Amino acid sequence: MDFFGAQRSRTQRSLLLYGLFFLIVFAHLAVALAIMALLLTLFTDGIYYWVLILVVVWTIGSFVIGSFLEYGRLKAGGRAIAQRVGAVRLFIDHSQDAWEHSQGVAHQHQPVSKVRFSARHIAVRDERDFPPVYRRYYEIAQQLAIASGLRMPILYVLPEEQGINGFVAGRHSQDMVLVVTQGALDKLSDEALYGLIGHEYGHILHGDATFNLQLMVILAGLQLLYDWSDSINNFGASYKGSHKNSQQNYFDGSFINSAVNHNNLVS
Question: Given a cut of 60, is residue 200 above it in pLDDT?
Answer without folding.
Answer: yes
